[in-house]
Specification:
Number of domains: 1
Strand order of the largest sheet: 1-2-3-4-5-7-6
Shape: globular
CATH superfamily: Gcn5-related N-acetyltransferase (GNAT)
Radius of gyration: 15 Å
CATH class: Alpha Beta
CATH topology: Aminopeptidase
Number of strands: 7
Helix content: 25-40%
Distance between the termini: 27 Å
Structural class: alpha+beta
Largest sheet: 7 strands, mixed
Amino acid sequence: MAKTIIRPATSLDFPILLEIDAASFPAGVAYDSGELSYFMNQQGAETIVLEVDGSIAAFLIVDVDLIARSAMIVTLDVREDCRRLGFGSRLLLRSEEIVSGHNIKVFGLQVDVHNTGAIAFYEKHGFRSTRRLRRYYADGHDAWLMLKTLPQDGGKSR
């Protein structure tokens, strides 16, 4: 049985995370090196990786703004050969624990309106489309702003 762990990302992980992001999104949507570095190093950003037998299979960046009392998923990327194994769900649940630990109640993200698989995934996890963001992506595509209200007890009830 494969050993999986979720841990904070380190600077040594950066090249692999950049590779996974480039393979996960089309040009114009995938982050370049400067953009990915920027999001990972923002104050309040937390990057977590999921490893399978010592190799990174997926990662998630969440941006927590303690002053605004908000949190947004910047990206959730899973290697193509590791999709549909529950890794995205595990990272998403871990990010909810991180956000709840900061006593933030509303968690959000943006997703391309044409990405029906991702929309269904986030809806399965309790996120709801609340607003259409016109021309959100560099390629001109619109995005849905999706939000989820987290439990009031720091995520202890599920």
